């Protein structure tokens, strides 16, 4: 289906010729249409603008109208090609048709300008800015981004406040670099304020009993659907689920650290997990508690007692081709069993397993610095959040010791 969109007419008249330009949208992509009526006959030339974003298409149309009016291009010339023109023609310094002004190209330059940051930080920038580029359109240029675009991307209702602040922080750094390079005059993030309300961390944390509820819901679902014939394939049985979420709860490993964890990093005899590819670039060693040790030993045996390879490979993996689980799929499966099957509150997310590990350790009497090292927090202030959540635990303990009596 073709939708004709006459956004603006550029008209040039001569004695026997009238020309004009407009935009046309086919599907999701915009094209510019040049028309001229010469000696009573209409001639049309259409060129794809390579964008699905209206602001970019309109901006390009204006630029080409100026070039056409000034006689610098002739779209009716059989030898003229818009795509080739964009590759070779160098416009003024502020022109939007220069390839280097597209966000997708600028992202590459931005990442190259940061050789001293950790790979995890680079991955964070690439992920967030990449998602933003997909949100506004692959052909979006830097000078067309507005604060409203930033708000629409960062502050979606389904995002947690921590995610909103994280997205805004990454985009602010990216556009701050563009401003420093004099590619844009103003950082569009400077007018955007992060959410003031802090996340209610206590609603994301759960204890060992809740972990067992989730595992029980998983077992029940699997058993029921095997009996009725709905689960027949190995990948549907999701054998990785119990050992993975148990590891997450008792080790505090991040989702990425879990899906990339290898048996070479796990020493079951010494009860240690050596985490190398971390978010902040600092390696750490995680101790393995009894309950995790039992489940990992069982999983190691079920996996054929491998000495190397991914601890939690995708069921699609083969002996010759190793495939990792995707983080998004892991989170999706966890939400399904935690919320739909175990009927837990909507605030329970996969990352809550990491929060729960910190609280679990503090409740067991671990010093806050030990918890900090176990989870790999860069700052002790991050770990202190969990200490504040255990006030009720301390009150209950004081009551048991007779230090607090009822009035």
Q: How would you sum up the global shape?
A: elongated
Query: In CATH terms, what is the fold-level topology of the largest domain?
Result: hpI Integrase, Chain A
Radius of gyration computed on alpha carbons: 29 Å
What sequence of helices (H) and strands (E) makes up the elements? EEEEEHHHHHHHHHEEEHHHHHH
CATH class of the largest domain: Mainly Alpha
Corresponding CATH superfamily of the largest domain: Intergrase catalytic core
Output the structural class: alpha+beta
How many separate helices?
15
C-alpha end-to-end distance: 77 Å
- Please tell me the CATH architecture of the largest domain by its name: Orthogonal Bundle
In helices, the fraction of residues equals 40-55%
Query: Largest sheet, described in full?
Result: 5 strands, antiparallel
- Mean pLDDT metric: 85
Number of structurally distinct domains? 3
Low-confidence stretches: 1-17, 90-100
Number of strands: 8
Strand content: 5-15%
């Amino acid at each position: 289906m073709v939708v004709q969109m006459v956004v603006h007419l550029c008209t040039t008249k001569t004695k026997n010729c009238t020309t004009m330009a407009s935009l046309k949208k086919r599907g999701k992509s915009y094209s510019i249409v040049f028309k001229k009526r010469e000696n009573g006959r209409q001639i049309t030339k259409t060129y794809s603008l390579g964008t699905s974003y209206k602001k970019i298409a309109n901006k390009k149309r204006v630029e080409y109208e100026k070039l056409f009016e000034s006689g610098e291009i002739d779209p009716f010339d059989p030898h003229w090609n818009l795509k080739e023109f964009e590759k070779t023609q160098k416009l003024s310094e502020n022109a939007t048709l220069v390839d280097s002004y597209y966000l997708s190209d600028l992202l590459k330059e931005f990442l190259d300008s940061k050789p001293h940051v950790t790979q995890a930080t680079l991955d964070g920038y690439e992920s967030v800015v990449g998602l933003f580029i997909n949100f506004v359109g692959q052909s979006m240029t830097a000078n067309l981004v507005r604060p409203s675009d930033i708000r629409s991307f960062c502050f979606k209702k389904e995002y947690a406040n921590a995610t909103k602040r994280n997205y805004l922080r990454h985009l602010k750094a990216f556009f701050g670099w563009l401003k420093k390079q004099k590619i844009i005059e103003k950082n569009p993030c400077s007018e955007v304020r992060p959410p003031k309300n802090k996340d209610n961390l206590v609603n994301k944390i759960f204890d060992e009993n809740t972990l067992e509820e989730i595992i029980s819901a998983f077992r029940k679902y699997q058993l029921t659907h095997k009996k009725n014939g709905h689960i027949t394939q190995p990948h549907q049985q999701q054998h990785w689920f119990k050992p993975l979420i148990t590891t997450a709860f008792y080790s505090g490993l991040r989702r990425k650290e879990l899906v990339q964890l290898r048996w070479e990093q796990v020493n079951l005899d010494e009860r240690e997990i050596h985490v190398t590819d971390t978010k902040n670039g600092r390696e750490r060693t995680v101790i393995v508690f009894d309950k995790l040790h039992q489940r990992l030993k069982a999983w190691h045996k079920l996996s054929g007692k491998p000495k190397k390879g991914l601890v939690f490979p995708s069921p699609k993996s083969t002996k010759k081709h190793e495939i990792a689980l995707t983080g998004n799929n892991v989170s999706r499966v966890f939400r399904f069993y935690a919320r739909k099957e175990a009927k837990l509150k909507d605030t329970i997310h996969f990352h809550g397993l990491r929060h729960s590990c910190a609280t679990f350790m503090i409740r067991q009497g671990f010093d806050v610095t030990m918890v900090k090292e176990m989870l790999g927090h860069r700052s002790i202030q991050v770990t202190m959040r969990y200490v504040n959540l255990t006030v009720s635990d301390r009150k209950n303990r004081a009551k048991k010791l007779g230090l607090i009596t009822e009035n």
